[in-house]
Amino acid sequence: MNTRIATLIFLMTAAGYLWASGPNLNVTDPVGDDHGAGYIVYPGTDLWEKGELDLVNLSAEVETDGIWFEAEFHKPIKSPDNRVGTFGDEELTQFLRYEFFNVNLEIYLDQVPESGNTWTLPGRQAYIHPTTAWEKAIILSPRPRVLKSQLTSHWKRALKKGSLPFQTTLKELDSYVEDHLYFPTRIKVSKRAIRFFVPLDFLGETPGNAWHLTAFTTAANPTQSLSLKLPGKQESPIMTVPVEGGWPRDTFGTGEEDLDSAPAVIDYLCSESGFQERIMRQPSDMGISRPAVLVGIPWMTPEKVKAPEPISMEKLQPAAKLATPPSPEASFVQPPAPQPGTDVKRVKPLKEQKVEPQRPPRPEKTSAAERLKELKSLLDQGLITKEEYEKIRTRILSEL
Ligand SMILES: [Ca+2]
After folding, report:
1. Is residue 299 part of a domain?
2. Which domain, by its residues, includes 387?
3. Are 276 and 383 contained in the same domain?
4. Which residues surround ligand 1, an ion (CB under 5 A)?
5. Which of residues 323, 356, 382 is at a domain's end?
6. Residue 46 covered by a domain
7. Is residue 177 part of a domain?
8. Same domain (yes/no): 319, 371
């Protein structure tokens, strides 16, 4: 063989190797911190059990056409086989096509420094700090198509009400969702890990120095076929399970009667022990909790996470979009760092801080007609079964 051709082949192979072994990612996360700010308790049902939403590692392999992510959990991935959900008595396998059902992994990717989105999916009660605001979000969910459809419907309603967290028109909303959110469908589940593929077409670029990622787990409720409104909740908990006061049976709990809700973020990815609890702890008063403000970790040096500057809620959520404007005193207060080895407990706000409780706005009312219409459209798209349709329809009508 011609030496020059052989050299060329060698160089191309070497380049391919360097590319493939390039800006990969490997972040470990502490074991046992699937408790949000430190106090979240799992429901009293075996659909979700302690350790199953506990992320212990997130890795990413960069390939020529995209990135294979792998999320490893502390406990084995629970299969939907021979299980029924919280709604009705249908077997989960009737409408789930992947070998997992009880966890979402949400990754908010910051590609361009100091610009981008600070909101996260509805019902998470979490924001991304503006220093690592995101351009692309990857939402791994057991029902990717249904989640995408529910979110799009939710945002269409929000747009009409002027409460959309981003700027677009009704005509361009679908393409906005396509451009900014990706719901993986190439998924491989092994004993304790879920691998999923994100194409380069969506990402637009390969990982670079500017990249940061904010990743966290939320509990997935695969039988939640509609964005049913829960009383007192600011946003509908789309395809997730809220964290309510005390020790509820069917949802996650705060473990305290006087704390009536908490962000739905169960485990936030960060290799530094104690950082998650510190960043997620929030001043609370009269049982009213505030959203979590999370910060992205650098893709290239994920161990070097920096605590962000405190930020006021007004900077995260445009005041015009708030039903109740927050008081000026209610700015983000950085709690003191916990001592190593101590059990992290929620810190009560100091009296002199005078943190005004920020009452969540009244839940938006969706008319039964709108919900029935959305339900019918989910059925027509084949996203729910006829049986699911009938059950939810009966429930909506019974609420009239
Ligand atoms: Ca963890």
Report:
1. yes
2. 367-400
3. no
4. 29, 33, 54-55, 267
5. 323
6. yes
7. yes
8. no
User: Higher model confidence: residue 308 or residue 140?
Assistant: 140
| 14/140: higher pLDDT | 140
Averaging pLDDT over each range in 172-186, 313-327, 384-398, which range is the top one?
Answer: 172-186
Q: Which two tokens stand for residue 248?
A: 């509820």
**Residue 145 within any structural domain of the chain:** yes
The gap from C-alpha 373 to its chain's centroid, in whole angstroms, comes to 27
Tokens of 54: 């506990």
Q: What tokens appear for 215 in the block?
A: 């990743």
Residue 270 CA to ligand 1 center (angstroms) comes to: 8
Q: Are residues 312 and 378 in the same domain?
A: no
Q: CA 145, 139, 359: angle at the middle one, nearest 5?
A: 105
DSSP character at residue 251: S
Amino acid at the residue 51:
G
DSSP string, 60-95: EEEETTEEEEEEEESSPPPP-TT-B-SSTT-BGGGT
pLDDT at position 110? 96
Q: By C-alpha distance, which of 72, 79, 214 is closest to 134? A: 214
Quote the ligand 1 centre to 284 CA distance (angstroms).
Answer: 24
pLDDT exceeds cutoff 90 at 391: no
- The mean-pLDDT minimum among 270-274, 278-282, 366-370, 375-379 falls in 366-370
